[in-house]
Specification:
This protein has about 200 residues and is an alpha/beta fold. It folds into two domains: about 120 residues, Rossmann fold, CATH 3.40.50.300; about 80 residues, no CATH class. It is built from nine helices and seven strands. The strands form two sheets. A five-stranded parallel beta sheet has the order 2-5-1-6-7, with helices on both faces. Strand 3 and strand 4 form a beta hairpin. Helix 1 packs across helix 9 and helix 6 packs across helix 7.
Length: about 200
């Protein structure tokens, strides 16, 4: 089995690249999906979040992400408290998912999409790290046009994450999404061939 970390800043194109790998036959795990799963209604993590941040972050039994974001965004101490609740459970659940895939498909490729690889305390040993890269200007445009964010909000979201140079520094491979979709797919195809070679070596 080959375990690949797929990282990149917000609006860099990670989901698109992950989907392309999935179409190739890779097993894809999304850290954001795991994060949402561990705070589902009735979960221990959700109870801990309510205890830490108060009842206003819960709406009809579910996590009110917008309310929580207002509390933790830009407040390092609050964000650290939230991460201490969520991250260990995400790591545990991720290990379970990887092991389940390993049992089903010992020779498979797992793509683990983890936006905050640089910022996180991941203790997973990856066979390769792939960074999805796009210019800050293009990422801002994607956030404003595609997600309806205001310009200052988009810039703030990008500014709150690790810098592009930090992600590129830890990457074994880079997929540049500044160009066309076809160019992105060509890069995914090329990398898939390399991963397939490693798998059969």
């Amino acid at each position: 089995m080959i375990l690949v970390a797929l990282t990149g800043g917000i609006a860099s194109g990670k989901s698109t690249v992950s989907q392309m790998f999935s179409e190739k036959g890779a097993h894809c795990i999304d850290a954001d999906d795991v994060s949402r799963a561990v705070v589902e209604p009735g979960s221990p993590a959700l109870s801990d979040i309510e205890e830490a941040f108060g009842p206003d972050v819960i709406r009809q039994g579910s996590l009110d992400r917008a309310a929580l974001a207002q509390i933790v965004f830009g407040h390092e101490e609050s964000r650290a408290r939230l991460n201490a609740i969520v991250h260990p459970r995400v790591r545990e659940r991720t290990r379970e998912l990887i092991e389940q895939i390993r049992e089903r498909d010992p020779d498979g490729v797992i793509i683990y999409a983890i936006p905050l690889l640089v910022e996180s305390e991941s203790n997973i040993s990856f066979d390769a790290i792939v960074a999805v890269s796009a210019s800050p200007e293009l990422r801002v445009q994607r956030l404003v046009d595609g997600r309806g964010m205001k310009l200052d909000e988009a810039n703030a979201r990008i500014g709150a994450q690790a810098g592009e140079d930090e992600r590129l520094a830890i990457a074994d491979y880079v997929i540049d999404t500044n160009g066309t979709m076809e160019h992105t797919r060509e890069q995914v195809d090329e990398l898939w061939q390399k991963l397939s070679h490693f798998r059969s070596a």
